[in-house]
Amino acid sequence: MSVLRFLNTKLEEVFLVILMAAATILVFAQVFTRYVLKIPLPWSEEIARYMFLWLTWVGASFATKERKHVNIDVVYQLLPQAGKKVCTILSTFIWIVFVCIMAYLSLKLTLSVASGGQIAIGSGVPMWIPYASIPTGMTLMLFRLLQNCVHDFRAGTQANLEGGENP
Amino acid sequence: MILKILILFGVMFALMIIGAPIAVSLGIATITTMVATTNIGLTSIATACFSGLDSFPLMAIPFFILAGNLMRSGGISRRILDFADALVGSITGSTGMVTVVASMFFAALSGSSPATVTAIGGITIPEMKKEGYDPAYATALAAAAGTIGVIIPPSIPFVIYGVAAQCSISDLFLAGIIPGIMIGIVLMGVNYFTSKKHNYGTKKKFEAKNLFITLRTSIWALLVPVIILGGIYGGIFTPTESAVVAIIYSLLVGVFVYKELDKKAIYEALRDTVLINGQTTFLVGISMAFARFLTMSQVPTSIASSILNISNPVLILLVINVFLLIVGCFIDNISSCVILTPILLPIVTGIGMDPIHFGIVMTVNLAIGFITPPYGCNLFFASAISNVPVTKIAAKILPMILVMIGVLMLLTFIPALSIGILG
Known about the structure:
The complex is a heterodimer. Helix content of chain A is about 80%, strand content about 0%. Chain A is built from six helices and no strands. In chain A, helix 1 runs antiparallel to helix 2.
């Protein structure tokens, strides 16, 4: 149970923090070995880029969990309560559709890269690893979106019930 | 072609209006248009998202965010404020002047505009309130001064423009120095006259001794731009690597010299970075897929050729500036930079404008977009600090927007101000 709770609250966060720290160290090592030791690392920049892809797509899921994605709510704020509700439901639905399409397309792409057996030139990393960041991130995002929906729905019914008790 | 543009931008605006995330609006607009008007396989969207972000220069984004976070919690921003206070605190409108000058210094350490507002305005807005400034004016000034964060190098928008326009990020950084100083000067001018009129600020005397003392404690902070710019132009490292060197440097200074960074603060800085990065670079990735689809459909070239046919250069530049200012009022700067660069660049190079020069003009435009309501990132951040609603700040920020537009016009029509420094 506590493992599940940890995964639920901290999965993206811990993964991303470690990855960010590792990427910083890696790029610093790249500068250090090239400028101070005069030994350029042929693989470091490539690996750093792949870390960045993972930072981006898993980070997108983290931002979904924390509800930090940028939107424009100028019109939304002017709407009456019912209108806001309709817009929220509609935009969340479209968001879910988008994430499903992206997850499907990127998974297809990753699988085709994997079956081609491509390998990165500098580092020898199999190319499906960086590609897999997109389907992974999108699947996590889908999960976070559904979680947000359930949470909002519960909060909504809660508010309705409380409203009913105290007219 | 017209149908394609209509569907693409129609769907995009419709989704934005109902409050869908910008990234989702762009993504669905691209997918819908591809399915409705072309027979290009949809997988190309996933490919574009991958290859667009498979970029070492773009990695500067999370690195500069992290460097800024560490400098804020490691005590570097406070020392910069002390130094700025000793430097300009005796001029009329003292703390207002300090806000602008400290923002200029912080801009030389950080590449983000909201980060500058939080780091500097977070301290000076409450101080100005205490000293009897109109809270709305104090908030407006900090928000406007924060825009300098993306003009004086390093700068995240320059990184994004450099990748989108395929030109040198190092050159963009250099070309941003004088425009950033110009904006600082005109904002100080606005603050001077406003403070004189309303008798804002305290009367302090300038003391050389004080300047010397604060210089000594803030010297570690003031060395950061020397390291970043010196390293880039000395050919030692790339802009992305310079951000990492700045991270390591601010870690060392924060932990060993100022002793204000502990494990918890470092973790918080990392957490905050990956969160903002997830929001920012995800948007960059989807915007790139959108922009690539535009380019594939030859929308930019057809717009460029139709515009180049009709007008004279001065008019074209004015129209582009007005267009960008309007865009800046409604849409965030990242997606507009990625999407509009491929559309506008062929037009301006068609009338002989240098891509670096245009990068400065575009970034200053979008920086003004940070403070133009209804959608202005800096307004939101500054308003969160002072609890003054955005509508009240908007009234006070108008003169600052106007002087910044004045600077923008100078920059647009006198290329030497930006690219002159490149020789």
